[in-house]
Amino acid sequence: YNISSETVSESCPSNIALIKYWGKYEDQIPANPSISYTLTHCKTNTTIDFSAHESFSVQTFLSGKEEMQFAEKIEKYFKNIEQYLPWILKGKYVIRTENTFPHSSGIASSASGFGAIAKCLMKLDGVFSEKSSDEASLKKASFLARLGSGSACRSLYEGLVVWGETDEVEGSSDLFAVQYPNAEIHEVFKDFNDWVLLIHEGQKSVSSTVGHGLMKTNPYAERRFQEARENFVPMNKILKNGDLEQFIKLVEHEALTLHAMMMMSDPAFILMKTGTMEVINRIWDFRKETALPLFFTLDAGANVHLLFPNNGSEEQIKTFIETELMQHTQKNGVVKDVMKF
Ligand code: PMV
């Protein structure tokens, strides 16, 4: 290796899962396949100053503020991936990172964060070792991101992305994510909104690491993993035929199942808040009254992701959100994103 000091910068968006990953085995192997949308505006921008030939150390700054805990996490992560990047422990790192969306907003900053770091590492790898093809390098970035945070591996690709082996998606793997074949996706899914209602911006009471761990003793876990695998069959059909009604049913079921798993864990935990329930019920009433395609998904938190296509009814839906749903948030908080591809 011809190692020199380098500065690299990369940007990576977050993603929101439609079929959820919840439960894993050793080495970040997912218990079931998952599929997500990669966001457009919610991103992490990361710069790494790498000083070669100094002793290994990691310093991290989040929006300009030094974060020791994050540095420790990254140090552990780098040691863990040395087997895949042999040069990685041969220098000093100063990592500066900032998110384009509010901190602890329930938009997965670990997904965009580890995605951006993995992309930076692959850029350094391209300088220090023999250049691989862009495609191979992207695949390896997804592989490395997965070892930081499972869902991060899906953020390396645009549009709809699958992680976890399933017969329903060719080339899918437990080790890295793959893009869902674009040519097979119905037009209606190619221009979609994701507005995140910030119901509660505080720290989550249970981390996703602990949550994944509790699936090991959850008596419903095996059935859940099987259901997620089975859900790829209707999902595949829906993505091709554009049946929004079935899409809504499946996506909301996945979100509620994720939270049901939390309630059935031992110890049980609940990440939804009163506002979460309130908003879900208002969405259901709105759909009954108008038959318009506004629906929700949830991540591992209280905030509600509002999903709706740009297919002509979006103005009426946006007005409803702004006049009826925003009041259930803290400080009228909403983060507006789109998934266009
Ligand atoms: O990537 P992790 O380990 O933070 O897991 C997050 C899992 C969910 O966000 C709850 C669901 C998913 O598939 O993204």
Automatic annotation (TrEMBL):
Highest taxon of source: Bacteria
InterPro entries for this protein: GHMP_kinase_C_sf, Mev_decarb, MVD-like_N, Mvd1_C, Ribosomal_Su5_D2-typ_SF, Ribsml_uS5_D2-typ_fold_subgr
Gene3D superfamilies hit by this protein: 3.30.230.10, GHMP kinase, C-terminal domain
Pfam families for this protein: MDD_C (PF18376), MVD-like_N (PF22700)
SUPFAM superfamilies: GHMP Kinase, C-terminal domain, Ribosomal protein S5 domain 2-like
Record domain Mvd1 C-terminal: where: 196-330
Domain Diphosphomevalonate decarboxylase-like N-terminal: 13-168
Keywords: ATP-binding, Lipid biosynthesis, Lipid metabolism, Lyase, Nucleotide-binding
The protein, known as: Diphosphomevalonate decarboxylase
Native species: Chryseobacterium gilvum
